[in-house]
Amino acid sequence: MLPDSLLPLPTDLALVVAILIAAVTMFAVNRPRMDVVAVMVIVALPLTGVISISEALAGFSDSNVILIAALFVVGEALVQTGVTQRIGDWVAARAGRSEARLIFLLMVGAAALSSIMSSTGVVAIFIPMVLRIARSAQIAPGRLMMPLSMAALISGMLTLIGTPPNLIVHGELVRRGEEGFGFFDFTPFGLPILVLAILYMIALRRFIGGAAVIPPDPARRSLGDWVDEFDLAHRVARLRVAPGARATGQPLSALELDAPDRPAVLAIERNGSRNADIIQPHPDTVLRAGDVLMIDVAGQEGTPDASLNCWGLVPLGLSGGWFTERAREMGLAQAMVPPNSPLAGQSVAGARFPARHDLSVIGLRHGARPVPGALRDELLRPGDTLLLMGTWPDIHRLRDRRGEVVMLDLPGEADDVAPRARRAPQALLVVGLMILGMVIGVAPNVHLVLLACLALGLFGCVTMTGAYGAMHMKSLVLIVGMLPFALALERTGGVDMAAAGLIALAGEASPRVLLAAIFLTTSLFSLFISNTATAVLMAPVAMAVADSLGISPYPFAMTVALAASAAFMTPVSSPVNTLVLGPGGYRFVDFVRIGLPFSAITLAVVIAMVPVILPF
């Protein structure tokens, strides 16, 4: 007589399995798009009669889906405030030109942070930073996104709170009267696996696949191109207010810069507590020792500081590269004077750009011809192109205005500018409190993240447009579409049938073989349903196996937890993988090629180490 696990499948279970196989097949051939396949699953499952259409659509209200969407908003706030930019710069600076060192730093950082907060949240926050690093370092995003997701998954093997399956297995142990796991009981297993993962990804980085190097847009010109075109290196000079100089403590108006023979001050560099700030000059701006004046010396006779040397100003060098080095604080923009502009017929000085827009005109082109010499008395004509200099917020404000000028172009560096950089302290405070609340457990994670989103919007760290645009709907729809499978497989008895077959092996196999079987079964379920749902289903099964053998349940419980985090093999086995699918440009088969061998490595480590550290 055949065991129950080998009997023909019931009709309803056969239908669910058929839909599952069809979905996985379409994922594998990448036709149609994965989010379209997810919608097809939502439509098909209710037709079997196993679940209702309301249950198929329940994923749209699932707290984990809402959590992921909200974490995208948190990540966008960190992008707009420049936090991810600074982290990316630090990582890139430490990595240098070494791609291997970059992968190491990314994986260590992601694993460390994910061990104390949601790995899905960490990946959502890291994605824009990794894309920026890939673009600036000319590295294929596909070589970085999968290492990021793998490190985030392994973080669940480092601490008790690293992933929900750990807490589920711990809770099952406590429910059965055991002490459960300690905070760092997972670390002896997770650390070796993380080290092996880093070495594995570094060794195979050229075979990962995914998106290629992001080429620079040939239509976008850089600041350096504009510096050369308008000859700014010879038009602009820098003068520093030396300690004890006569100019110290004086307003700019005292320098009589309105006189025709005096150079115009374009901007002031002022050293702050951490770095130099760029401030717009006004007549009542009081100069301080150490301030650096940027002046327009075009058309001036003699040395650049000849008319200002009585004030104790020391000339400094200015190369064309200065604009590129300060691209985050100071920007350039090209704007055209339209035919109906009130500026037509006025002089550059009469247009009063510094007073009205906090922008300086440092270049002018009549048609295709740049105007040499001083610009102050040059008359503006319809169709003229102005080169404007100022801070990025001031440039963006002018772009939103109509009538006087029409913004033509921004340099390529504008894409990397954080428009809300001054809100970075508030963003860090909000995110820090959010993480602390998650660690302490003062409220459900989704509640804390939604509160963080509201606070970030209140402090001006993210706009509503940016928040909605940050949500990766393709990834969210894919997750929602796969959630109903857990309920359908459980309701049709598919999970119970697999568990019964596993328990039937208890009397015929050694404990190590059973550990391997539990690991493989957990990994198999995690291919199609969430690792959290897998842990809920497999934890009681694993402990029942231990009971049948009369041995400790701890090694079996640990194996379930570790296997639930080893969801490397498909992009739908974990939200972490799903998130990097689009940005990394991966296909379904890319995860199989890279994830399957490393899952085998993880299995070997688990079977070798678990019985040693947690004896039977």
Automatic annotation (TrEMBL):
One of its GO terms (biological process) is potassium ion transport. InterPro entries: Cit_transptr-like_dom, DASS-Related_Transporters, Na/sul_symport_CS, RCK_C, RCK_C_sf. Residues 224-311, 320-404 form the RCK C-terminal domain. The keyword Transmembrane applies. Gene3D superfamilies: Regulator of K+ conductance, C-terminal domain. GO terms for molecular function: monoatomic cation transmembrane transporter activity. It comes from the Bacteria. Its main location: membrane. One of its GO terms (cellular component) is plasma membrane. It is found in: Membrane. It is a multi-pass membrane protein. The chain crosses the membrane at residues 12-30, 36-58, 103-131, 143-161, 181-202, 427-443, 449-469, 476-493, 513-542, 554-574, 594-614. The keyword Transmembrane helix applies. Keywords: Membrane, Repeat, Transmembrane, Transmembrane helix, Transport. This is Di/tricarboxylate transporter.
